[in-house]
UniProtKB/TrEMBL annotation:
Protein name: Class I poly(R)-hydroxyalkanoic acid synthase
Localization: Cytoplasm
UniProt cross-references to InterPro entries, sorted A to Z: AB_hydrolase_fold, PHA/PHB_synthase, PHA_synth_I, PhaC_N
Stored PANTHER family: POLY(3-HYDROXYALKANOATE) POLYMERASE SUBUNIT PHAC, POLY-3-HYDROXYBUTYRATE SYNTHASE
Organism listed in the record: Polynucleobacter paneuropaeus
Gene Ontology BP, a term: poly-hydroxybutyrate biosynthetic process
Residue ranges of every copy of the Poly-beta-hydroxybutyrate polymerase N-terminal domain listed in the record: 50-216
UniProt keyword list: Acyltransferase, Cytoplasm, Transferase
Domain of life from the UniProt record: Bacteria
Gene Ontology molecular-function annotations: acyltransferase activity
GO CC term, one of those recorded: cytoplasm
Classification via Gene3D superfamilies: alpha/beta hydrolase
């Protein structure tokens, strides 16, 4: 195992990778490694251990500390070797990613024999922790994923997605929820929210104290929200065009009708933002001015730099998906939500995989309830036809940014024809939508744009209610050519970015009017109470 690597040899990559490292750099890395190894042999405290995996008191013994220090030393130099490989950027990123995955997997914390906390638990529990761990493991094998939270603690509609409202429209692709006003007066123009179809909508409506939906309703906005259906095999041929036309554009028309306005505001989150921008480009091609303002949260339009996700996408991988689920040669299928979820978890393996392997299986503990992690594990499938189009035309060929290159819903689209004001939010530590890539949307969209950069990651940066008074965000009224130059002149503001957004959105809401408690209208009557039925559909229940 990695932590027990023979300390008389330097860490090594595969031989063909070693051959690609310049000799002088290889010699430098090996020299530094042996020097630090010798120093560690004479002084076990030579490496300061700040890694939280080894923070427990049990790791403070001389033997355990030496194991951890040896592991960290080997990890450091394996990564140095990976970064030193002389090859193209994409190949290097793949080598580094694979090396990081191996390093994280081989942590001494992940094995019974080398984790002193696990050994102490076994002794103190008289072996019960091992029995509990095996039971947890068997349960997760049935589910096909590592449990990250106590799933029995949550129920959609009971303690998640509880903001009051009703489904006012349903087709085979989505339900449209309208929320009940919480103020005496409301802005005349509604706000339509389009969440990602890769996950369920209730990330925007977790619990009352961290619900984006509830916060916006409390500010006097009439909120409509798209709740995507969790696709089953019968939907394998549903396309990107369907999500744009029968999804986003249909939702815009319904919200506009119920709101009784010529225009509405629209918000897209992650892939929901990409779909929304596609829809607005289609409407622009049709010369329909239905949108007063656009909000994009952690959204990619320019896929020139997709960060870590780039290592998964090349011509070969896309062709493979197209031939198996994307309709090539008549083969259609589904992109499994479990597979997607597990892939995203391994982008942060120590936090979202190995931590739970240790706690759930080796220590025999049950994970505590956590609403965000419950949502994270509530997977959704994607239709093969839609998923393969998305992979090829965005991640692989980056064609959304090319005017009139793509035809969507029968229209040649040009993002440059979207000229409504846009609020573009990105998260600084986002590993799914790199913030500098999100900044490029300020150049693509031709309206008066505002860019705001929040702290933290893809989800935690967005779900940051003001009541918590956590984190910070950056603002700069002037949009310049590069993201780096924008950041250099940006002002650091403490707390949540939500109030900044509310101040920006207010003028686009129009006049205030008396709020009506009646949801829907004669064309689109109330169907069932929120959160509706689509959001409750689970992969495990689909046949």
């Amino acid at each position: 195992m990695f932590s027990g690597m023979n300390q008389t040899t330097s860490p090594a990559l595969a031989p063909h990778h070693m051959a690609l490292i310049p000799p002088e750099r290889l010699a430098e890395i090996q020299k530094q490694y042996f020097e630090e190894l010798a120093h560690l042999a004479t002084n076990p405290n030579a490496i300061e251990i700040k890694d939280r995996r080894f923070a427990g008191q049990a790791w403070h013994s001389a033997w355990s500390k030496t194991i951890a220090a040896s592991y960290l030393l080997n990890s450091k130099h394996l990564l140095a070797l990976a970064h030193a490989v002389d090859t193209d950027d994409k190949s290097k990123h793949r080598i580094v990613f694979a090396t990081e995955q191996m390093i994280d997997a081989m942590s001494p914390a992940n094995f019974i024999a080398t984790n002193p906390e696990v050994l102490e638990n076994i002794i103190s529990s008289q072996g019960q922790s091992i029995q509990n761990g095996i039971s947890n493991l068997l349960g997760d094998l049935k589910k096909g994923k590592v449990s990250q939270t106590d799933e029995t603690a949550f129920e959609i509609g009971k303690n998640l997605a509880t903001t009051e409202g009703a489904v006012v429209f349903r087709n085979d692709l989505f339900e449209l929820i309208q929320y009940t006003p919480l103020t005496e007066t409301v802005y005349e123009r509604p706000l339509l929210m389009v969440p990602p179809c890769i996950n369920k909508y209730y990330i925007l409506d977790l619990q009352p104290d961290n619900s984006v939906v509830r916060y916006l309703v409390e500010q006097g906005h009439t909120i409509f929200l798209v709740s995507w259906k969790n696709p089953d095999d019968s939907m394998s041929q549903v396309t990107w065009d369907d999500y744009v036309g029968k999804g986003v554009i249909q939702a815009i028309e319904v919200a506009k009708d119920i709101g009784g306005t010529e225009q509405i505001n629209v918000l897209g989150f992650c892939v929901g933002g990409t779909l929304t921008a596609s829809a607005l480009a289609v409407l622009a091609a049709r010369k329909k001015k239905l949108i007063t303002s656009l909000t994009l949260l952690t959204t990619l339009l320019d896929f020139s730099d997709t960060g870590i996700l780039d290592i998964f996408v090349d011509e070969g991988s896309v062709k493979l998906r197209e031939s198996t689920i994307g309709g090539e040669s008549g083969n259609f299928g589904m992109m499994s939500g479990l597979e997607l979820g597990n892939t995203f978890s391994f982008l942060r393996p120590n936090d979202l995989v190995w931590n739970y392997v240790v706690e759930n299986y080796l220590k025999g503990k049950s994970p505590p309830p956590f609403d965000l992690l419950y949502w994270n594990g509530d997977s959704t499938n994607l239709p093969g036809a839609m998923y393969c189009w998305y992979l090829r035309h965005t991640y692989l060929q980056n064609e959304l940014i090319k005017p009139n290159k793509l035809t969507i819903c029968g229209e040649k689209i040009d993002l440059g024809k979207i000229d409504c004001p846009a609020y573009i939010y990105a998260s600084h530590d986002d590993h799914i939508v790199p913030w500098k890539s999100a900044y490029e949307s300020t150049h693509l969209l031709k309206g008066k744009n505002r860019f705001v950069l929040g702290a933290s990651g893809h989800i935690a940066g967005v779900i940051n209610p003001p009541s918590k008074n956590k984190r910070h965000y950056f603002v700069n009224e002037k949009l310049v050519k590069t993201a780096d130059d924008w950041f250099k002149a940006a002002k650091d503001e403490r707390g949540s970015w939500w109030p900044d957004y509310i101040n920006w959105l207010a003028p686009f809401g129009g006049e205030k009017k008396v709020a009506s408690k009646i949801l829907g209208n004669k064309n689109y009557p109330k169907l069932i109470a929120a959160p509706g039925k689509y959001v409750k559909e689970k992969i495990s229940e689909q046949k």
